[in-house]
Design goal:
Elements: H1 4-31, H2 41-61, H3 63-73, E1 79-85, H4 98-109, E2 113-115, E3 120-128, E4 131-139, H5 144-147, H6 150-189, H7 207-256, H8 259-291, E5 299-302, H9 303-319, E6 324-329, E7 334-337, H10 339-357, E8 362-370, E9 373-379, H11 414-424, E10 428-433, E11 439-446, H12 457-461
Parallel strand pairs: 6-8
Antiparallel strand pairs: 1-4, 2-3, 3-4, 5-7, 8-9, 9-11, 10-11
Length: 470
């Protein structure tokens, strides 16, 4: 799974934090985690000198002077000093904890410094003609703001600002398209079907961009569906108005005319009634197919016979305009399908080709074998279809020229029936304009092996095909 948005969120945060922590680590490693803490180094360097000074002060001026010296060296809540002799006796008169004495012993073994959980203990030995002394100092760590060098503090501050900027940019980058989509959703709910949320996405490629584009696609499809419904209402009302008006007129004339003319009027009524019935049947067929109410009855079918039957009937219709139809096939091709649906699909494509080929047109029908499929190609010599309308001609009630009526192209239901029928058979439809002019529609239907010969169970059941011959 391509988690593009995850990496867009994770990597910037991780890189920013890694850079910050890396910079801090380097500074801390150099300044704080050196051989000994930097804030101890001044006292540590001075300890041997202070030890000699304390020893001489004690020998020359006594305990009181030593105590005053150690008090002057001590910092409140920061450091304390003791001077002990070789016997471990404290010479300034102030008590020394046993813990400090033990840490001082360890400090002498470790270059004069012992670091413990409680504090840091320094020890320096001084030797005089009268004996040996050990100056002990306990140093309490200063507050954090005093231990951290100023450049590290500035690194922290700068890192915080940079992190805030990065987070702000990322938050804006992630939420801006979502906010646009929210606003577009509100506009769509108010009835603005032309609103789109992804106009300023550019080449952005992640899950949020995909979501916004899917929303725009949904909004476009919703707009097309609503426009189709509006076209349906407009188209149906327009298409039904003409035959109904003719029926009413014919009935009115039939009441006022003699018997011979009355029969002519009644024939006209019958013709318009048949047209109405056919029109309504096509509308209901599309509705049933799209809603899934029509359940195809699949059975083994010889596609050659269905296509030949359609071509045979189409030749009579083509003769009215002087059009010619040629048919060729690659041998027997069988499919598991619904004979009625497939015949309706093939018939609509061929009749469409006849209509658009016009006077003296040429229609070529080829049934060929493909890899595990049958290919029915119908090519006409008409004007073709604009490229921008190629993907729309199979939508219900869509017509390239909306001004056409039933006499110039019908209601735009024929190819919608073709699309639904082919989809029900898990087939595909391809369309392309051909040179110098014309349109080719290729229907692909999955095939099955040739059924067993007569005498088997399939032969006993029979294979229903049309009784007409091409």
């Amino acid at each position: 799974m391509n988690r593009r948005l995850f990496w867009k969120i994770f990597l910037p945060f991780w890189v920013a934090q890694a850079l910050l922590l890396g910079a801090l680590y380097l500074r801390v490693h150099v300044r704080i985690n050196s051989e000994h803490p930097w804030w101890i180094q001044p006292e540590r360097r001075e300890m041997p000198v202070l030890a000699d000074l304390a020893a001489k002060t004690f020998e020359q001026q006594g305990q009181g002077a030593l105590s005053a010296l150690l008090d002057s060296l001590s910092l409140k809540n920061r450091s304390r000093f003791w001077l002990v002799d070789n016997s471990g006796n404290e010479l300034s008169g102030r008590p020394v904890p046993q813990r400090i004495l033990a840490d001082a012993t360890e400090a002498e073994k470790n270059e004069g410094l012992h670091r413990s959980y409680e504090a840091n203990v320094l020890a320096a030995r001084a030797t005089t003609p009268r004996g040996q002394y050990v100056l002990i100092s306990e140093l309490v760590p200063p507050p954090l703001r005093e231990r951290v060098p100023g450049d590290i503090l500035w690194t922290l501050k700068l890192g915080t600002v940079i992190s805030a900027i990065i987070c702000l940019v990322i938050a804006h980058y992630l939420t801006k398209p979502i906010e646009r989509m929210r606003d577009a959703t509100r506009e769509l709910a108010r009835g603005n079907l032309d609103i789109r949320a992804g106009e300023n996405l550019g080449n952005r490629r992640d899950e949020i961009a995909d979501l916004v584009r899917d929303f725009d696609s949904m909004a476009g499809e919703l707009r097309n569906q609503i426009q189709s419904e509006r076209s349906l209402l407009s188209g149906v009302s327009h298409e039904l108005r003409s035959p109904i008006a003719r029926i009413r007129l014919a009935l009115e004339l039939a009441r006022q005319t003699d018997e011979p003319e009355r029969q002519e009027m009644l024939d006209r009524v019958e013709q318009d009634t048949v047209q109405l019935d056919s029109m309504l049947e096509r509308i209901l067929a599309v509705a049933r197919l799209e809603s899934g109410q029509h359940k195809p009855q699949f059975e083994p079918l010889l596609l050659n016979e269905i296509v030949e039957d359609v071509v045979h009937d189409a030749k009579f219709e083509a003769a009215a305009t002087g059009a010619s139809i040629t048919y060729a096939s690659d041998g027997e091709l069988w499919a598991n399908g619904d004979a009625g649906l497939l015949r309706s699909a093939f018939e609509n494509v061929v009749r469409n080709a006849i209509f658009y080929s016009g006077q003296d047109g040429r229609i070529e029908v080829h049934l060929t074998k493909g890899p595990n499929c049958a290919l029915l190609a119908v090519r006409d010599s008409g004007p073709g279809v604009p490229n921008d309308a190629m993907a729309l001609i199979f939508k219900p009630f869509y017509r390239v020229d909306d001004a056409r009526g039933s006499s110039t192209g019908g209601m735009g239901l024929g190819l919608a029936i073709v699309q639904n029928a082919v989809s029900a058979h898990k087939g595909t439809i391809l369309t392309r304009n051909v040179e110098p002019h014309g349109l080719e529609i290729v229907i692909t239907i999955p095939t099955i092996p040739t059924p067993a010969p007569a005498g088997t169970e399939n032969a006993q059941q029979g294979v229903p095909v049309s009784s007409k011959q091409g």
